[in-house]
Amino acid sequence: MSHCTKLSSHWKIIVWDEEFFQGRRHEFTAECRNVMEFGFETVRSMKVESGAWVGYEHAAYQGQQFVLERGQYPRWDSWSGSNSYHIERLTSFRPIACANHRECRMSMFERENFLGRKGELSDDYPSLQAMGWCNNEVGSFRIHSGAWVCYQYPGYRGYQFIMECDHHGGEYKHWREWGSHAQTFQIQSIRRIQQ
């Protein structure tokens, strides 16, 4: 990812192989396909000093996704949040180059391939149903600008799906394009990713 190298001063994440910032430590300013290449079994705590990142359960950006914004993550439940799925592994991560909290715009569609009812978003929505979206599913997304994290349940809970304007050309035609862990059209809350 050449843009990550060029912007390396904008990205900094420090990871530890033990909880609460203990044990082996390594600093990254660009993507990491596999922490095992740096002597880690998994990341057990981290500090995001700059930029927004997406972490993955498995190597090579596979498995569950976790948005990692600036701050401290002393153990796995701090980045998985109120995720009802107990996942302690985080073995790859990369910067989210297009995160721009002030200028985010997306369209969501009732059915796959941008068909059916359409909704326009430019803000955070803890409940899509409360904003008038009739059901708990979204068929497809078109990301016009910025980066978003979509959640399976209201209140920013459940599986996380990171949607970026510079991935897939900003077009997510079907839930299978949301991530390797995606198994459902169910999306009930969405927010912009903080840079």
From TrEMBL:
Keywords: Eye lens protein, Repeat. One of its GO terms (biological process) is lens development in camera-type eye. Residues 51-97, 104-145 form the Beta/gamma crystallin 'Greek key' domain. Signal peptide: none annotated. It comes from the Eukaryota. It holds the Pfam family Crystall. One of its GO terms (molecular function) is structural constituent of eye lens. Homo/heterodimer, or complexes of higher-order. The structure of beta-crystallin oligomers seems to be stabilized through interactions between the N-terminal arms. Crystallins are the dominant structural components of the vertebrate eye lens. Belongs to the beta/gamma-crystallin family. This is Beta-crystallin A4. The lineage of its organism: Eukaryota, Metazoa, Chordata, Craniata, Vertebrata.
